[in-house]
Automatic annotation (TrEMBL):
This is G domain-containing protein. Signal peptide: none annotated. Residues 548-559, 573-584 have a biased composition (Basic and acidic residues). GO terms for molecular function: GTP binding. It comes from Brassica carinata (Ethiopian mustard).
Amino acid sequence: MLAKAARDLSSSKLKPLFALSLSSFKSSTWTETNTPNRSKSPFLLLPPRYSSTNVPPLTRDGNYNDATSATVSVCPGCGVHMQNSNPKHPGFFIRPSIEKQNSGSVLRNLVPISQEPEFINSIKHGLIVEPNSSDTNPETGSDLNLKDDETGRPLVCARCHSLRHYGRVKDPTVENLLPDFDFDHTVGRRLGSASGARTVVLMVVDASDFDGSFPKRVAKLVSRTIDENNTAWKEGRSGNVPRVVVVVTKIDLLPSSLSPTRFEQWVRQRAREGGLSKITKLHFVSPVKNWGIKDMVEDVAAMAGKRGQVWAVGSQNAGKSTLINAVGKVFGGKVWHLTEAPVPGTTLGIVRVEGVLPFEAKLFDTPGLLNPHQITTRLTREEQKLVQISKELKPRTYRIKEGYTVHIGGLMRLDIDDSSVDSMYVTVWASSSVPLHMGKKENAYKTLEEHFGSRLQPPIGEKRVEEMGKWVRKEFRVSGSSWDASSVDIAVSGLGWFAIGLKGNAVLGVWTHEGIDVFLRDSLVPQRARTFEDSGFTVSKIVAKADRDFNKTHKEETQKKRRPKKKSTSDSVSDKENCQEVSL
């Protein structure tokens, strides 16, 4: 329809319209004088970059380059290049519908970057909101209603629309067509440049999964660049020394009893061990609670100067986009809505965020770095929702002795192999949605066979247990000097950690899936729960549902056994003949 209508217009009439950039449509509403041949069916005029014959390349470069942003429009939610010709390719969007207004039928303006009503709190907290019956479910394959109305809602790609409204991606295989994000080529070479604009690296780390979300590769690259450019600057040569701001986000998920001073010392130590030699500034923030955002913005703006470049980097689902949205609201009241969702890899390309920092300083959101050693990369969307920490962590503590074991779902197991003391305290810090189990180590294999995939989730279902692959054991020798506080943590990337409290020595065996990172570190939260968990399964919805299903199946099998068997016709005839013989 668009192509047919375009052919009806002469090239002289189309030229001034198509010469306009996308920003020209931002505040204009087309009227009768703007739309020639009004008697024909109205249609939406799109710039050439949205033409079905001009499909953008499959790339994650986004619009960080001035030349690129002038020729290609990107989704303001995820940074992917937008196109409206192929729904099976990344960046697909549906043109806004034309609605009749009191003044007559007008074309609705196309705004790629603008204001948008606030995200609902449940999405911010990582909860999934099921669509209302009046909404269109993306699983049905029906058209999405992407609107760009006078309230200022931005036009986003269909993937972002699905994530925003349904908390899931309609077709996850589409984004697999994109090449892997080449951080070293796209961002790394800019960070390592000895000349150019002042560089600030905003390193975003998830407080609830610090070691799993800490970008070690970026830390080592930046540290190497700082050392090299510092030396060059001292020798009188050009040396652009990056400033590193470590932002520990989601601190509202940590226990409120945690000491800020102790936490700062702990973070600096873990950052050094992760390869970061120098931290210019360290900030603890919570975008959801709006904690620490203003101070962070002021420091970043001062370091960036008038023309600096700020690069937000971090692992997938660390919270970069949520942080930048909060920054936009704090600075000058501007609101920038990058897509937020409780699934890894929400941002697909580099997004240049305009108007957030003062003067001509620029802020860039980059795609999350994939950490293949994070356990969430092995999980399905449903399983990821279970391990996602969405509210303040609460301790679950066991008093345990040698020869016993503790499971975190079907993903991690801790064995007390040997101990110099009669008992010790093991505190589990993980999502409350994941059930726990304590029992004898000798029964661990039986627990795996009977309860993994049902009472112990994730994984969900017996088939997924097989798909997750084999478990491997890692041994740790630990020691502690107090019964009152945890001394060390054993953490699994993307899941949580065991905090160990003892006054003595112990040999511990940790089981998880092959290839998953396991860390031994000083304890993050020394406190334990006031009451102890009992042996067996913890109380949870997953365990309760599994019990109901088991009881139902058991009841049906028992009734089936008690039900009398129906006699066959031959048996009935035989019984009748026997009766006749007896009567004779």
